[in-house]
Structures are given as structure tokens and as C-alpha cells.
Amino acid sequence: MIDLREPKYPWGLPVKAVVDLYNDGSVPDVPEDILLVAKGGPGEIVQVGHHGEANLPIYMVDFGVCVLGCLEEEITPLQALAAPAAAA
Description:
The protein is mainly beta.
């Protein structure tokens, strides 16, 4: 059995796109290959899922104009993540 790869980012985290995000066919009524979110576009993670075959976390990110499924490599936090508190 393969251990699930844990997501790096939590729900509710403000993020931005680190690459231009185009419609890959997953947004209905919008032509494929149309730019949906430009690099740097802000959004918020509204759900975290998992792709079973690839063992990858998938982030549903609300960019305001649409909600897109993103990989960790396509988004980054708007602010640095707080480091875990050191044990006393």
C-alpha cells in the first residue's frame, strides 16, 4: 500500500498562480487553451483533494473568475507560511 502524499497547503490559504493557467477542457462553455488566470493572479484554496493514481494533492482554488484544480507547482502562498511552534 502506498502512503498518501500529504498536502503542503491548507484550506483557506490565500495563494497566487505561479504560472499562467489555461483551460485544459475542464471549464465548460469556455474554449480550450484560453487564459483563465494570469501568473500572479490571487486566489484562495477552497478544497483539498487527492489524485489517487498520481498520489498527488489537488487544490481547488477560487480565483474569483473561476474555481480551478491546481497542483502544488502551480500555486504559492501569498504570504510565507508560519513555521510550526517549537516544542518547549
